[in-house]
Write a structure and sequence with these properties.
This protein is of the alpha+beta class. Helix content is about 35%, strand content about 25%. It has two helices and four strands, in the order E-E-H-E-E-H. The protein has a four-stranded antiparallel beta sheet with strand order 1-2-4-3, covered by helices on one side. A hairpin with a 5-residue loop joins strand 1 and strand 2. It is elongated and about 45 Å long. The relative contact order is 0.16.
């Protein structure tokens, strides 16, 4: 399996970030956003299918996964099971 590369670059003085994606799910997501919002712009589509795009910097988010205690996880599972049985 080939390695797929993704990159995010931004200049702190500019309101946008430049992103590069080789992963199809991200290409699809950015393409849909560019079709719906003029702040997103596809700069280049490469012959291998990868894209280079400009997106608002405020859309770049990096965060840790949500941490749940075992008790909270079990309670959430129980709520989900109850919701599924009602439908």
């Amino acid at each position: 399996m080939a390695v797929k590369e993704n990159a995010i670059n931004w200049d702190s003085e500019k309101p946008y970030a430049t992103v590069y994606f080789e992963i199809q799910s991200w290409i699809n997501k950015i393409t849909r956003m560019a079709e719906a919002n003029e702040e997103f712009k596809i700069i280049a589509t490469n012959t291998d299918g990868s894209i280079l795009a400009r997106i608002p910097k405020k859309c770049v988010k990096i965060h840790l996964p949500r941490q749940m205690s075992e008790e909270a996880r079990k309670a959430a599972g129980e709520r989900m099971r109850k919701m599924q049985t009602k439908n």
